[in-house]
Amino acid sequence: MASPPGPPTPSPDAPAVAYLVSEYPTLSHAFIENEVEALRARGVQVHTFSVRPTTAAQHRSARSRREAAGTTVLLDRARARELAGTAAASLRRPRALATGALLAARSGPGGARGRLWQGFYLAEALVLLEEMRRRGLRHLHVHFANNGADVARLVVALGRAQDGPDSGWRWTMSMHGPTEFEAVDAFDLPAKVRSADAVACISDFCRGQLMRHTPPEHWRKLGVVRMAVDVDRFADRSAERAARAAGPLRVLFVGRLVPEKGPSVLLDAVAALRGGPDPLDVRVRLVGAGPLADDLAAQVRRQGTADVVELLGPVGNEDLPEQYAWADAFCLPSFAEGVPVVLMEAMATALPVVTSPIAGIPELVQDGVSGRLVPPGRADELARVLRELAAASPQERAELGRRGRRRVAEEFGAELNVRRLRDVVGI
Questions:
Q1: How far apart are CA 327 and CA 351, in angstroms?
Q2: Fewest CB within 10 A of the end CB: N or C in the chain?
Q3: Mind giving me the DSSP string for 208-247?
Q4: CATH 3.40.50.2000 holds for 16-228+414-425
Q5: For residue 238, how far is the Cα from the chain centroid?
Q6: Backbone angles phi, psi at 389, to 5 degrees
Q7: Domain map (residue ranges) of the chain
Q8: Do the domains spanning 16-228+414-425 and 238-411 agree at the CATH topology level?
């Protein structure tokens, strides 16, 4: 099977790892690109794999296009014959295949549909196993406890069955939430934690949730590795904002346009700020794509705020710094989160942030110190805090933003968290 463009075959003295994601690269998973890039910069050879192909619309930066070109897709129809030939090599090892089939039969939710999907995952695992073997790889790391994790545990079970329990096959996982915590059985979460060799949790909250569903003897596997940003890439723009001429409060939202991110709450707050006896001059940009796009456009028309709200659609990661520079405040009024990377990016530019005190966010944002926290779903409270930010002097907003930047630099920087990742998962 021909190698795709990408990292060379690992040499014996260089650490190497395979990364498997259900879809890679994508706009919403730019943080995985950040992690891969940081590992490679520190001498780790990272080979990237995607279960499903992604589209050109997801590759809006030069880095994403490079990653797409260097990523092997397991369900790539264009290379189906090559992939089938690769998987056939595993079929010549019937005892190992029986081990994988037994694990697949016992894994995931029950019922005919669950068994069918595990059969698909086993086929994908056979392809990935032989490709990793060909490249000399034995460590497989995944993000999320979704189908990538299903495939990963099957790959390692097959590898150990073929080569022995001490042959170096291992799999590790980065755990985010909140989706998996809302459907523990559907994701087979406890079993995946028990199977994994190590789990990197993005927050103490996330680690605590896994501890709820895992026997204490497995807690030693769970380490905290925060999602990180390159603080140097997102320069402090507070002086630039403070020097702007007086004008409307500029509010920025960046995220998937899905209910859990709360964009409708922000639009309700804007409508409240624009109405009443003391209207506030405000401008809002929503950056992102998702199933709520048409509903949000209709909400803007219905509320009569089309003159102050822009729906910009998706923006490439390389273009986000200029969006952060445009804004006076960043708003992410989420209902469910892990710890949003866009929140860290905004804070790294010293942009004051307003968000919800849910999941791991309070580990990043302390109300009144490194940002502002508003109860989820409270458009009235969000409007009140945005009005307070508008009334604050540019210097006061700049100081709040600078404290947020310091918080990101202290605990959420790339250098620190790559070291943590390597320690926790053993790269």
A1: 7
A2: N
A3: HHHHHTS-GGGGGGEEE----B-TTTS---HHHHHTSPS-
A4: yes
A5: 27
A6: -65, -35
A7: 16-228+414-425, 238-411
A8: yes
Amino acid at 200: A
Query: What's domain 238-411's architecture?
Result: 3-Layer(aba) Sandwich (3.40)
pLDDT in tens, 87-139: 565 666 667 677 777 777 777 777 777 777 788 888 899 999 999 999 999 99
Q: CA–CA separation, 98 vs 141, rounded Å?
A: 24
What is the tens place of the pLDDT at every residue in 140-194? 999 999 999 999 999 999 999 999 999 999 999 999 999 999 999 999 999 999 9
51: left (phi over 0), alpha (psi -120 to 50) or beta: alpha
Rama region for 334: left / alpha / beta (φ>0; ψ in -120 to 50; rest): beta
